[in-house]
From TrEMBL:
This is Type II secretion system protein F (GspF). It comes from Paludibacterium purpuratum. Its main location: membrane. PANTHER family: INTEGRAL MEMBRANE PROTEIN-RELATED, PILUS ASSEMBLE PROTEIN. It is a multi-pass membrane protein. Residues 170-296 form the Type II secretion system protein GspF domain. The keyword Cell membrane applies. One of its GO terms (cellular component) is plasma membrane. It is found in: Cell membrane.
Length: 312
């Protein structure tokens, strides 16, 4: 492998730019300190952990390593960390160490992919120090993105499960309110019944009932429920319950109407997905079925033509 002077200069410029960027992000100025303090306050207010980790030594060694790595290298601003916290809460991770673990996972995954890129070989045309440096940085950035994409995917699937089970949960709440249960007891009973059917929704109802029992503020607990899940269906439920509480309308009647509308919306979503199948299946048919059909239909004719031209 031979490098020219231009390749070396470009590689040096790439590495210097990367180091300056990391140094600027890690610079301990007053703005970074204030952002970290604001993040601690927001984490204490917004994130409600489902369990309290009193002893960090009980956590696995890998989790402790990732958490320490994320705490020692604050490469993200307070706003970015708050967005990560909301994304993790929607995925079901409400522990205070979820954000440091995610940051540590991003750094560890990026470092592993970057080290693997050093073992790769490029074609002779692109075999230069600049190309290797760009590949190293590209693999590092890809590794930084992958853990966040995984967390977003988990959160999306969790929202879909909650939306799918919400009409049944509303029917359970209607039965409980008709039996004379309060809102907190209705949520508690619905969460117990939904533990095996939809654990994410049962967990959210249980957390909301715990907030109601501790604070007694129905509006705040319901708004926290909508913020944690981030689903339009849950937000509709929150708005319905808040309006029923504000105007004194019967909760059971509002929940019954909301359950009907949610079932209608679920059927419309299923019909929309079914309508898209005909379009989505076109590409697999063209790539998989059409070549076989062409081969079967035109294959004998092509073979006969090749035989005739071969005899001539």
């Amino acid at each position: 492998m031979s490098f020219t002077l231009n390749d070396i200069l470009l590689a040096v410029l790439v590495w210097v730019a990367a180091l300056l960027y990391l140094r600027q992000r890690m610079k301990p100025d007053g703005r970074r300190i204030s952002e970290r303090l604001q993040q601690v306050v927001n984490d204490a207010v917004e994130i409600k952990p489902d369990r309290v980790d009193t002893d960090d030594a009980e956590q696995p060694a890998l989790t402790q390593f990732l958490m320490q790595l994320g705490n020692k290298l604050p490469l993200f601003s307070a706003q970015q960390q708050r967005n990560m916290a909301k994304m993790l809460v929607r995925g079901g991770w409400r522990s205070p160490m979820a954000v440091p673990v995610l940051i540590g996972s991003k750094l560890a995954c990026g470092g592993c992919l970057a080290l693997l890129s050093l073992l790769s070989t490029l074609p002779e045309k692109y075999n230069s120090m600049t190309a290797h440096s760009l590949l190293f940085l590209g693999m590092f950035m890809l590794g930084m993105i992958l853990p966040e994409l995984y967390a977003q995917n988990v959160g999306t699937h969790r929202q879909e499960k909650i939306e799918h089970a919400l009409p049944d949960a509303l029917d359970l709440m209607v039965i409980c309110t008709n039996a004379g249960y309060s809102l907190g007891n209705s949520l508690l009973r619905a969460s117990r019944e939904l533990e095996k059917i939809c654990p994410p929704l049962a967990d959210e109802f249980s957390v909301t009932q715990g907030e109601l029992q501790l604070s007694g503020d129905v509006g705040e607990a319901l708004r926290h429920l909508g913020e944690r899940v981030g689903s339009l269906s849950l937000r509709s439920l929150v708005v319905t319950l808040l309006q029923s509480q504000q105007y004194g309308t019967p909760i059971s009647q509002a929940l019954r109407q909301l359950a009907k509308s949610e079932r209608t919306a679920r059927m419309m979503r299923l019909e929309e997905r079914a309508a898209k199948l005909s379009t989505k299946i076109t590409i697999p048919m063209v790539l998989m079925i059409l070549p076989a059909v062409v081969l079967i239909a035109a294959g004998p004719a092509i073979m006969n033509l090749m035989a005739m031209t071969g005899h001539q």
